[in-house]
Amino acid sequence: MDLAGFSGPSAALDPENHVRPLARVLRLEPEEWLAMSYRPVKGTGRFAQRAFYGQTVRADQFNYRRPRICPQCLGQRPVWWAVWDLGLVAACPFHRRLLVNQCPACGKKLVWRRPAVERCRCGTDLRTATAEVANADLVAMNAVIYRAAGFSLGAAVELQLAAYHFPPELGRLALGPLLRLIRFVEFIGEKDRLRRKQRSFPRTDLTTTVQAGQATTSALRDWPRPLREVLRRMLPPGADNPAALKFSKIFGNFYRHLFRVLPRNEFGFLHDAFEEFVTEDWKGLIRGQHRYFTAATRRNSHWMTASEARRMARTSDERILDLVRLEEIEGIFVRTPPDGSRTECWIRRQSLKQWIANRDAELTLHVAT
Q1: DSSP H or E stretch at residue 343
Q2: Which residue ranges form the domains of the chain, and what is each CATH number?
């Protein structure tokens, strides 16, 4: 900053406003310096977006305060890879080691102001640091991040990734959406519980980053089995009364976050897996407030309203209600919230289909006779 002729706090240093002086000091063309800068591109506050080598990444995905390095990468080339600045990057997929965020000699956390890229403030050569071997699941998810960031992984790493059977769409996600997906997996918490609220992500905490990477691999490998299993275990045991199952209480935050923050055009595989679970395993009611579900999900749900049953059976509402009372089709009467002043009738879809088949067979027999 001194060489470029600036004074004042570094937070006021906007690359857009000081392009030429900074580029001259760094011996770069202005376009090169802008390409390297994580400059703001849109949004404000927690929705702020920054440029990242031709891509767009949310500003809260960067780890600015506690830099991390791969000693072996520095040993090969003493350059700083931009991907290390992402808060969700904790391992090097090429060397299969955890990134290092503290000096092996003085024990202090690494900082940006150092004598050289490969040296700590105390003078220790960081290329001599010994990094721990990374968990294989963590390496896999970090390899996916590296690939989305523009790295060529090589045949060996790609072969290892193929063994995880991730959803094919995962490899086609841009970097920004991929990082959002990894953060989303935080909803799947410990002990197979969905967190009621997404917690803040401590970008400088290497341990939390490691846990996030491993959890995402566990949730996405052999897709979609792990997610379906977690969702099934979320259902209360012995839930025989469909009216007692409260979708919003069990899956509410997961459902809202999925459909509002992770759009179907980018995360269709996740939406499809969740809706397949709803049609196959959710024995409760799908009411009108579940507006994000597709029409196909509603058509294939276990229960339907009396009005829908009437249209399907081509009969009257009174006839449907009589069939329920006579137990010729399976249905339930539910008091509607909040005051319970109105009663709804819900029909089990499979039961109605069977009744229609029997009725039509009987009509065919009479016509033939």
Answers
A1: strand 343-348
A2: 10-53 (no CATH), 71-188+200-220 (no CATH), 224-295 (no CATH), 302-369 (1.10.10)
* Closest C-alpha to 164, from 221, 224, 218, 226: 221
Residue 352 identity:
L
CB atoms within 10 A of CB 99: 22
- Residue owning tokens 């089709």: 329
In a 3-state reduction of DSSP, which class is residue 201? Answer: coil
Q: 89, 83 in Cβ contact below 8 A? A: yes
Q: What is the pLDDT along the chain (369 residues), one digit of tens a residue?
A: 778 887 665 545 565 667 888 888 889 998 888 888 888 888 777 678 999 988 999 998 999 889 999 999 999 999 999 999 999 999 999 999 999 999 999 999 999 889 999 999 999 999 999 999 999 999 999 999 999 999 999 999 999 999 999 999 999 999 999 999 998 886 565 444 555 555 566 778 888 899 999 999 999 999 999 888 888 888 887 666 787 888 888 887 788 888 888 889 999 999 999 999 999 988 888 876 677 888 888 888 999 999 999 999 999 999 999 999 999 999 999 887 666 678 889 999 999 999 999 999 988 877 665
